[in-house]
Amino acid sequence: MTVRLEWTDPDATPVLGLTATDPSDLPTQLARSVVEFLAGPQRERLRACPAPRCVRYFVQDHGRQTHCKTSCANRARASRHYARNR
User: Fold this and answer.
1) Phi then psi for 66, rounded to 5 degrees?
2) Using CA atoms, how far apart are residues 68 and 60, in angstroms rounded to an integer?
3) Do residues 65 and 40 lie in contact, with contact meaning Cβ atoms separated by under 8 Å?
4) Are residues 27 and 51 both part of a single domain?
5) What range does the domain containing 3 cover?
6) Residues 6 or more apart from 73 whose CB is under 8 A from it?
7) Alpha carbon distance 1, 4 (integer Å)
8) Same domain, yes or no, for 85 and 52?
9) 86 or 22: which carries more pLDDT confidence?
10) Are residues 80 and 58 part of one domain?
11) Nearest Cα to Cα of residue 57 among 44, 69, 70, 48
């Protein structure tokens, strides 16, 4: 299996290429999904969660969403409160 994603210009649409011998293979399907996601319009909404100790990435659903889930937002608020009152 060969997966290739290339940007010739930062403002251009990436070039997508995927060659697989067995399309029903799970790693092939996963690679195809990842490459299609990174080459598609949703890549601009991909965000890293800024909460302490969170290593997740998420696709931003709306403009004010800043955390991957509610518990991360609560953890970030608690951390800010602790830092202010310390």
Assistant:
1) -120, -15
2) 8
3) no
4) no
5) 1-39
6) 51, 66, 67
7) 10
8) yes
9) 86
10) yes
11) 48
